[in-house]
Amino acid sequence: TVILDQTNINFVVDAGKDNLFFVCPLTLYHIIDNTSPFFELAMDTLHQQEFELVVFLDGVAESTSASCQVRTSYIPHEIKWGYSFLPVISRTKEGKYCVDFSNFAKIVPVTTPHCAQCFHNEKAHNHQYTKTGIDNPGFEVIDIHDPIGFTKM
Prior knowledge:
Layout: E1 12-13, E2 28-29, E3 53-60, E4 67-74, E5 83-85, E6 89-91, E7 97-99, E8 107-109, E9 112-113, H1 116-120, E10 128-129, E11 151-152
Antiparallel strand pairs: 1-2, 3-4, 5-8, 6-7, 7-11, 9-10
């Protein structure tokens, strides 16, 4: 028997408000607090859960009024606890913007609480989950002076 339970989840974007401007890559994220359906989850029990997070993104091109809808989904094994995306947009020492598409979808570990309760109630839960290194051992961060093959903005 498959039980269907739909729950709306609020997402926040790293730039802008409700109107997204897709000139640059954007990161949408969900804040896990006591109103989140993920509040009871922990890093070591996430992959034992049975759910699917389905994300819909609706948009309208203002110049043509054409609508677009994108849908994707994630199961627990596809969710990375304690990771953050590498930046795609950077500035050279000369002040020029560069878009490094080789960093697209690359992640690095960040210090993250073991569970949301650890973050919101540190006295009751006082253990941190920390990783060092990155997901791709061959990746190197380099100083780029005049990038070749990058998209300049």
